[in-house]
Amino acid sequence: MDPGTILAILELSATTLSCIGKYYVGVKNARADIQRLSNEVEGFHDVLQKVQELVQSSQATRLPISTSFTNVAKQSLLDITALEKRLNPSKKRRIMKRVGVRALAWPLRAKSLALNADQTSLLIGIDANVINLTQNQDLAEQNRQLATLPCAVGASFDSYFRQHESQCVPNTRVDLLNRLQKWSTDHERCIFWLNGMAGTGKFTIARTVAHIFYEQRSLGASFFFSRGVGDLGHAAHFVCTIAHQLADASPLLKRYICEAITKHHNIAMQGLRNQWKELVVQPLSRLNGQWPTLSLVIDALDECENQEDVKLILQLFVETKGLAGVNFGIFVTSRPETPIRLDFREMPDIVHQDLVLQDIPRPVVEHDITVFLQYQLYQIGSKRDIQGWPDETSIKLLVQASDCLFIYAATVCRFVGDPHWSPEQRLHLILQSEARGSRPTAKLDEMYTQILRCSITADQDMDEK
Does 104 have pLDDT greater than 60? Predict the structure, then answer.
C-alpha cells in the first residue's frame, strides 16, 4: 500500500472541507445539505488519518493490506478529487471577483451529497481489524517473553495455596493498618520494616496489607517467603517473580519489562542485582508518573535460606530510594534476627522506618486479641448452633493466657473449631490447663501439649474402632 495515496486523500479531504465552509457562509438555501456533506467528509477525513498513522507506524510491515483495501483507497482518491473540483470556489475566480461570495451556488444534487458509504465502512472496518490484530500479536509476543521468566509458585498473597489463610479480623490492628496506608501514599522512607517474634501476627498483617494495596490498585507485587517450601524458601526466582507480577499489574510496565527481556535474553540466568536493575528498576523509572504510587509486600524475609541473598535483597531495596518516575515503596516483614537487624542498622535512617510488634502497648494488643477471639469463636458457635458461647470470663482467660501472642489465640480457635469434636469440651480442656514456668511461651507450650494429647487419644480411638 502506497502511503502517498493515503496522504493525497487526506490533503484533498482537508481542502474539500475548506471549500464546504465557504459555501456555508455564502449559500443560504442549502445549509442542511451543506452541513450533511461536511459531516460526511469530516468523518471520512478522520478515518483516513487513522489509517495514515498506521501505515507510518512501526507496525506497518505487519499490516494485512488487502487488494480490496487498495482499490477502495484509489477509488476514494478519484471521488474526493472530483468532489473538490466541483466545490472549489477558486475555479470561478472572475465571477467571485466581480460579485463576491454571493456568486456562489450549491452545485450538488441530493444524491451526490454523501461519499460512498461502503468505502467508508470498509476503511473503518479495516482500521479496527488492523488495530485489534496488531494489539493481539503484541500481547501474544509479550506473554511468550514473560513465560521465559521462572516464577516461584505460590509466592503472591492471593495464590491458590493461600486462599484459605486469614486476614486481620475487622476492628483489629486498626492503628497499625492506618499507619501503613498513610506510609503508602507518600513513601517518605521507601522501606517499612515490620518485625516481631514468632507468633505476633506478621503474616496475617502482611496478607491484609497486600489485599488493601491491591484493592487500592497500588500493589505492584508480593512475595511470601516460606522456609522449606520449594522456590519460596530461596531467592533464586525472587526478582523474576516480582517482575512477572509487575507486568501483570500494568500494561505499560509489561511492555517495558518485555523490552528488557528482548534486550537481555538470558536475564533469568544472571545474578539478582542485574535482574533487579533490568527487570524492576529500569522499567519503573520509565513510568514518568503514569502510575502514581506503587508498593511491594515482602513477607518473612528471614525465611529465605541463604543469608547472603537476604543481605543482597536488602541492598537492592535501598537502591530504589528516590526512584524517578514513580512513588515507590517496599513493605517488609521478618523476625528480628541478628543478621537482618544489623543490615537495617547499616541503612541510612532516611531510607527505612521500623515498627516492632512487641513495642505496641499491651492494652492495644490484648484488645485486638479479644476482638479476634470473640469473632472466631462466635463463628464456630454459630456453625454448631451453640447459643451464648463462649462467656466473657472464658474470653478473658484466653486473652491472659495468650500473653500478647496472636499465634496462641489462632491455635486455640483451630483446635476448638475441629468439626469432629465438641467446641465446648475442647475449650474446657484449654482453660483447665495450667502452664508451669515463667517463660513467655509457657502457656503456648502447654496448649500444644494438650493438643498432642488429644490427637494421640483420637488416633487410639480410631484404631480400636
Answer: no
At residue 334, φ and ψ (nearest 5 deg) are -170, 170
Report CA-CA distances (Å) from 306 to 16, 195, 232, 302, 311.
Answer: 72, 19, 12, 9, 9
Tell me how far apart the 2 most distant CA atoms of the chain are, in Å: 120
Instruction: Copy the grid coordinates of residue 409.
Output: 489465640
Least confident of 236-245, 312-321, 334-343, 450-459: 450-459
Question: What is the phi/psi pair of residue 170, to 5°?
Answer: -50, 140
Concatenating the DSSP letter of every residue in 104-152 gives ------GGGSS--HHHHHHHHHHHHHHHHHHHHHHHHHHHHHHTTS---
Q: Please, what is the Cα angle at 66 between 61 and 67, to 5 degrees?
A: 130
The residue type at 129: N
pLDDT in the model for residue 463? 47
Helix 406-416, helix 362-383: angle, nearest 10: 10
Cα–Cα distance between 465 and 447 in angstroms, integer? 27
The per-residue pLDDT for range 19-61, each reduced to its tens digit, is 555 555 555 555 565 566 666 666 666 666 666 666 666 555 5
Ramachandran region, residue 201 (left: φ > 0; alpha: ψ -120 to 50; beta: rest): left
Give the single-character DSSP code of 90.
Answer: G
Distance between CA atoms of 194 and 202, rounded to whole angstroms?
8
Listed residue (225, 235, 212) closest to 332, CA to CA? 225
Please tell me which residue, 453 or 321, carries the higher pLDDT value: 321
Q: 345-374 in b/e burial notation, b at 16+ Cβ within 10 A?
A: eebeeebbebbebeebeeeebbebbbbbbb
Residue 327, strand partner residues: 293
436 CB-contact burial (10 Å; exposed 0-12 / middle 13-18 / buried 19+) = exposed
